[in-house]
Amino acid sequence: MRLATPFHSAMLALVLLPLAACQKPAPAVTEITPPATVSETPAMSTHDANSYAEPEKVVVTHLALDLAVNFNKKVLAGTATLDLDWKDKTAAALVLDSRDLNIAGIEGGDGTTWQGLKYELAPRDAILGSKLSIAMPGALAKVRITYSSVPEASGLQWLTPAMTLGKKTPFMFSQSEAIHARSWVPLQDTPGVRFTYEAHITTPKNVMAVMSADNDPKAPRDGDYSFTMPQAIPSYLMAIAAGDLVFRPINERAGVWAEPAMADKAAKEFEDTGKMIDTAEQLYGPYRWGRYDILVLPPSFPFGGMENPRLTFATPTVIVGDKSLVSLIAHELAHSWSGNLVTNSSWKDIWLNEGFTTYVQDRIVESLYGVEASDMEKVIARHGLAEEMKDIKPDDQLLALAPLTGRDPDEALTSVAYIKGQWFLTFLEDRYGRAVFDPFLRKWFDDHAFTSTDSAEFERFLDAELVAKNPGKATAAELHAWLHEPGIPAFASAASSKRFDAVDEARGHWLAGHAAATDLDTAKWTTQEWVHFIEGMPETLSVAQIQSLNDAFHFTGSANGEIAQRWYPLTIRSGDLSARPAIAAFLARIGRRKLIMPTYGELAKTSDGLAFARAVFAKARPGLHPITIVSVEAALADKPPAKP
Ligand code: BES
Ligand code: ZN
Question: Are 120 and 127 in contact (CB under 8 A)?
């Protein structure tokens, strides 16, 4: 990508930038000898390998954004003003993260008077983006950066009206985790730094803007919006969306934002959200973020959900009409404790976010929907982990990972963090009992609230607060196996589900030819039972078997993505081509990576399938999110000769 942004590869040249026309001319700045900070500092063990920031020297404590949402140009443009807390007052530069930003000018000052500052934007690193080094003539309290994003910004998606439900209004949304905030705000893009923020956002008049902040359900829709986020958050929780959004309350502190055609359906599907918050509070203490709202995004959203504080972003693919997939909301809500309140300080320890959250999610599901629902989800999750683990190298099967130096945290994230992490906490719960383990986990959240932490700190806390106080329950070797050894420890207890036993029996009867598909007792099955039914099928079926299942259950064309994502690969492996039109429609409509990647992966295994997948992707691409595009391109890249 060619950028208009000036950059000089020569280390010595800091660029004297032109000031934005509307600002007072700044006094000339004296030439600054490049400080040691401009050169590469050796990686320290506490350093976040996925950020150029130097929090040991300075931390950003507050961010003020003033941005215009420009749908015609597909850019955000304006200023970001950062408040700085200098740990090293002699530091000669402020180093920020950025990716593909056009920087128009940088000033420093005390908030009243400003002076132009020199800066250097390093060449773009494929993973980290461009290191932005701003020369500091002293420990300035603030810097103000005038900039714009590019239409291809990795953390933003811009949708034309045609790509929305209502077809009249454009839509845009951000996805900052893991390291995409830097593509729309220049900042210290590391979860190790927390800051508060405020924002002034302008949009076309008929467009509503919302952020991971204090959204006012009654705010007039006038194209001029102000937000504050008084709790300190890491950069990956910065979020914005704008479109034809309306609000529906769920209860006094929870509600749904969605396009008008989706709003009532979404509010109904998510009507248990209030009860979920109550349940989580009983277990882990007060919800500390004010409101909890859910924004339903278009189906191109690359994830199931994203725990943006006060405003979870969610895929519409979980709105299936029977609440069978609302554990996604339990998950994102759970992050209000595990993640948003207590955060991994770098991405190698993401199990502290996702593993803890999957554990808390399951506790909410069990409390609201019963132990059978929780059991089914555990069996499905662990089956998925076992499958995924076959392709994960041993070093990546640990919970406490090595620093992700040279790696993209998006691609390094696997079910190990989620499901092995959850399994470990379930192991601790079993050994110590809920009477001991629940208060322990609550204390972890309370003692580390609004901080960023790592696996070493968790181990210290675990030893001091659980193991030492309750001797004889778990050995050091067992804990070591969970945290520092690959695979699932042999002593881990398996999950089982009574309802799945009945599914296994039904599938067995049908496979043995003892029952026709239409005779199976499936009337009360929920999504999870259908998922288990399909997952337990042999690697391939005959085309006749595929067709008899489809005649009975209409899997092809299912609106339920959890079913579709498992059914389509089975049809492909079985050599049944009749699902192809439905597959093409599914891959064109949905951008949630977890749902579409198994089908792309299966297609890519044969040359004919690969050709079909490439043709489908070429059509779907303009409607896909940059994060999804990267994943699909990797799956469809040229590989050693595929099977004919
Ligand atoms: N925080 C994650 C999404 C994420 C993780 C985005 C890492 C980028 C990098 C979110 O909470 C999540 O885990 N979403 C899941 C849903 C969940 C029910 C497992 C998803 O999107 O599938
Ligand atoms: Zn999560």
Answer: no
